[in-house]
Known about the structure:
Layout: H1 3-9, H2 12-38, H3 43-48, H4 52-55, H5 59-65, H6 71-81, H7 94-108, H8 113-122
Amino acid sequence: MTERTQYLIQDPERRKEALEKAARVRRERGQLRVELKNGTADPLEVLSRQDDTARLMRLYSFLTACPGIGAARARTIIRAIGTTESRRLAGLGSRQRAKLERALRLALSGAPDSRIIEEVGKL
């Protein structure tokens, strides 16, 4: 039995605690997206964070929250690194993470999508 399923069958107090934690983490992720969009949080720093707020953020949500990266560019980056939109940041492999860091640096510097695809493909 996994830790996740244990919460489903245990007492109401444990369930309430789990629900409160989930709501808190969702609020924190929402705040993190706002900070990314406003430029008060550095996307590369967020990518290297080890807390649940950043690690459990979905890749597409993370990318579209970064300044200068819209839906189309986010999908281009996701295809270039070889993963899916629904992947969480914590689920990226070391190569995918390296490709994402490179793509972020290029996208944030204003490089065109064609250059991002070319550079990320070299890794």
